[in-house]
Amino acid sequence: MGEGARGETLHILADVGFGVNAGETVAIVGSSGSGKSTLLGLIAGLDTPSSGRVRIDGGDLFALDEDGRAALRGRMMGFVFQSFQLLPGLTALENVMLPLELAGVADARARAREQLARVGLDARAGHRPGQLSGGEQQRVALARAFAVSPRILLADEPTGNLDARTGAQIIELMFELNRDQGATLIVVTHDVALARHCGRQLRLEAGRLLDGDALMAAEATS
């Protein structure tokens, strides 16, 4: 919810309710401005709802204060973004090490190097983001997200800045890593190929949740 240009209240999301089981892969789809990224921000506890609740493992996320939500994110969640969100002054290895160091992992360097090897970038460990292609940067971002063995992975348009071929490679890699770790994957995407990789689709339109699975089935038979 927010304020419009004339002071009127804007409802970004309304009457949105759904559950996700552990280990599920769910795509949130919809047109631009439908509220997809806002919904992902609420699930992560980065945005605060004006009403309603987000429950994780049976607990109300917004019963926690900001520090408590940050601690939960560090303990349970991994993130992948359209714009990669790598720190430009750090090498690929250092970017992957960062969440491990914040979590107090003793062998952060070894674990980060192992993750880079898994995404095929061990030889690029010493390169900074500006020296990497878009696909390579997103591979580093995937390595960073999975390095902490998250129970929940949240991805916001992970193929949005990539060409079709590179995007397809990133999709395959993300799902391969996710199969190995068994994380719950929730992804916001315009990418039809990515959405169809997920076990379930939820469609948002004008801030309201539609039956994405039924819509996808109808489109397939029309």
Distance between the termini: 36 Å
Tell me what portion of residues adopts beta-strand conformation. Answer: 15-25%
Trace the largest sheet across and list its strands.
6-7-8-3-9-10
Individual helix count: 8
Described by its quaternary structure, the protein is single chain
Low-confidence stretches: 1-7, 212-222
Into which percent range does the helicity of residues fall?
A: 40-55%
Return the average pLDDT rounded to an integer.
87
Topology:
Elements: E1 2-3, E2 9-10, E3 25-29, H1 36-44, E4 55-56, E5 59-60, H2 66-76, E6 77-81, H3 92-102, H4 108-118, H5 134-147, E7 152-156, H6 164-181, E8 184-188, H7 192-197, E9 200-205, E10 208-210, H8 212-221
Structure summary:
The chain has about 220 residues and is α/β, with parallel strands linked by helices. The chain has 8 helices and 10 strands. Helix 3 crosses helix 4, helix 4 crosses helix 5 and helix 5 runs parallel beside helix 6.
